[in-house]
Amino acid sequence: MRVAIEAASLGLSSGGLARYTAELSLALARCFPDDEFFLCSDQPFRMPPGSPSNLKRGGGPRNSMERRWWLWGMAREMSRLGADLVHGPDFAVPYIPRRPSVLTLHDLSPWMDAAWRPAAKRVRRRTPVLLELGIATMIVTPGEAVRKQAIERFRLRPERIVAVPEAAASWFRPVATVPATPYFLFVGTLEPRKNLPALVEAWREVRRHHPVELVLAGRRRTGFPALAEEPGLRMMGEVPDAALPQLYSGALAFVYPSLYEGFGLPVLEAMQCGACVIASHAVAEAAGDAAVYADTPQEMARAMREVVARPEWRAELGARSLERAREFSWERTACMTHEVYEEARRRFGH
User: Fold this and answer.
1) Do the Cβ atoms of 7 and 40 come closer than 8 Å?
2) Using alpha carbons only, what angle is made at residue 238 by residues 127 and 27, rounded to the nearest 5 degrees?
3) Secondary structure (3-state) at 109
4) Residue 186 bridge partners (DSSP)
5) What is the spatial distance between Cα 272 and Cα 3, in angstroms, rounded to a whole number?
C-alpha cells in the first residue's frame, strides 16, 4: 500500500498535532516495511528524525492551481505518487473524493466554544461538510468519548468512525534529577480551555504553606492573555523535546486541569516519565485509574498539598503512572490505524 499523509502540522514548533503526525508516520513505516508512506504538504515542514527508508518526503503544489491544496494540489500529488489512500491528520482530507481517505478528528473543541479556538474558523466550516457528506471515507478519533460526540453531532454512521488511542513517544523515560526548588508542572499549549487560571489559583493556595513553584511550559496561543508575573510562577515558553523527560521526571506532580480534551497526550508523556499526575476528568480515557482527579481549584489545591505532605503517596502514584503508560504504544496505534486504512479501501466506492 502507498499512503499519502498530509504533513502541514510538522511545520508547527510543538504541540499535539505535530507529535501525532510524526510518531504515527514513524510507527507506520516501522510496522509495515512493505508499504510506502509519503509526507506531503503545501507548507514547509521537517521530516521526523530517524525516518525509515519507506517514510519519504512527497511533493507540494507545482503551480497556482495546485496551491488550492485541498481542492486540487493534494489529489494531484497523490496521482504523481501512485498513492492508494490519503490520511489527513488535522481535520481535513481532499475535497473531491477520488481515492479513499481517512480523517483524524482529534476533538470537538472548534465547535464547543469559539473562544477556545479563535483561529479555527476554516475547520469549523470545512470539517462538518467533509464528515456529513461522506467525503472522508473513514474517521479516526483518539478516544471513545470523542467518537460518540462526533456520531451525535455530525450524524455519522458508527461503522465509519473508529477510536484509536495515542501514546507517549518511546524517548519519554524517567530521568534521575533533584530540582533546586520543588515544583508542580503543566506542559501544553497555553489556551483558554486548559483552565490555567484555576491551576494558578490552586498553586497560590498551596504556596501559602509550602515553598513550591509552578512551572508552565508550552507555546502561548494567539488570544490567550498573558499571566501576571509573580514569585514562584515560572513561564518557560516552548521547551525542546530533549528537555521534557527531565522536566516531567523532576516535578512533584504533573497537573493538567483542562476543561476539555480529545485524549490528553501530555498526561501519558508525564506518566511514562514516572510523574505523579493530578488531572481533570477530561483526560480520564488516557489516565485511567492512575491519576488523582481534581476539577476545581479547591480539589486541585487539596491534591497538591497531599503530594507535598506525603512523599510515599507520591511515589505510589508515580509507579501507577508507569504501569498505565505501558498499556499504550505507537506501534499499537499504527496497527489499529492501518486496519482503518484497509477498511477505507474496502468501503471506497461502495
Assistant:
1) yes
2) 60
3) helix
4) 216
5) 30
Query: In the block, which residue shows the cell 513517544?
Result: 169
Cell digits for 163?
477510536
Q: Are 196 and 186 in contact (CB under 8 A)?
A: yes
Q: Measured between alpha carbons, how far is 203 from 233 in angstroms, rounded to an integer?
A: 9
Amino acid in position 202: A
Return the CATH number of the domain spanning residue range 183-325: 3.40.50.2000
Helical H runs in 133-239? 144-154, 196-207
Region 115-133: mean pLDDT is 84
Q: Please check the confidence at residue 350 and state whether its pLDDT lies above 70.
A: no
Helix locations, 40-181, DSSP H: 74-81, 121-132, 144-154
Decide: residue 21, CB within 10 A, 0-12 exposed, 13-18 middle, 19+ buried: buried
Tell me if 2-167+329-347 shares its fold with 183-325. Answer: yes
CB of 340 closer than 8 Å to CB of 137: no
What's the CATH code, domain 2-167+329-347? Answer: 3.40.50.2000
Domain boundaries, the chain: 2-167+329-347, 183-325
pTM above 0.85, yes or no: yes
Report, as an integer, the average pLDDT of 322-327. 98
What is the SS3 assignment for 211? coil
